[in-house]
Amino acid sequence: NAGVTQTPKFQVLKTGQSMTLQCAQDMNHEYMSWYRQDPGMGLRLIHYSVGAGITDQGEVPNGYNVSRSTTEDFPLRLLSAAPSQTSVYFCASSYSLPGGTDTQYFGPGTRLTVL
Amino acid sequence: TQLLEQSPQFLSIQEGENLTVYCNSSSVFSSLQWYRQEPGEGPVLLVTVVTGGEVKKLKRLTFQFGDARKDSSLHITAAQPGDTGLYLCAGQLLSGKLIFGQGTTLQVKP
Fold it and tell me: Which residue of A11, A56, A77, B90 sits 20 to 30 Å from the alpha carbon of B71, by its own alpha carbon?
């Protein structure tokens, strides 16, 4: 099992550019989530999915899009990057609702800098 | 706004010392989790507590959930350099939403 994988590990963008952060899991988890981590602010939920074809907004969804065409993949798209989106992005997956008795597994993160 | 306040934010201690990290909120949680994160990696779940007053031990780490399920603490006995990292608490609200504290950066010096 590779667990949760994320690519790329690092990325530098210019303001206005678009890109897709890739996330994949091989544990057959239904729930997948995208978080951003900023200094002193913990983890904040961007978007999440409760299964293939179903996505919903989290706490900070503006400027990001997601889709879930398969159980395994959950890409995060930045439509027009802004310096405020400079952050470390984590993808996570779990069998059921995060925070319950099931373990939520995190990927290694993507460190994004927007100039 | 539901908040989960973690304290202290930074802690630098010598090997062998004891420490406690606190996680407090005015909201009631159905469960509370503690994670540990090392530089360049994602958070890793250490424990989940679900019952008010519950105490769980993981080697030198002791986790407690408050009786009213609004707060939690993490106590480390005889800290080791390998305990260095970022510790995050996360509470699941009764609505199902999961919120994270700001994190506590722990440095244990040999």
Answer: A56
Provide φ and ψ at B41, rounded to 5°.
Answer: -130, 170
Burial B18-56 (b: 16+ CB within 10 A, else e): ebebbbbbebebebbbbbbbeeeebbebbbbbbeeebee
Per-residue confidence of chain A (115 residues) as pLDDT tens digits? 789 999 999 999 999 999 999 999 999 999 999 999 998 888 999 999 999 999 999 999 999 999 999 999 999 999 999 999 999 999 999 998 888 778 999 999 999 999 9
Q: Which of A4, A99, A103 sits opposite B90 (nearest CB)?
A: A99
Chain B partners within 8 Å of A41 (Cβ): 102
DSSP three-state, residue A98: coil
One-letter amino acid for residue A44 of the chain: R
Query: Contact A108/B40, CB-based, under 8 Å?
Result: yes
Contacts of residue B98 in chain A, CB cutoff 8 Å? 45, 97-99
Q: Mean pLDDT check: name the lowest of A34-38, A95-99, B23-27, B41-45.
A: A95-99
Partners of residue B7 on adjacent β-strands: B22
- CA dist A104 to A44, A68, A81, A82, A100, Å? 15, 18, 28, 29, 9
Closest CA relative to residue A106, chosen from B28, B46, B5: B46
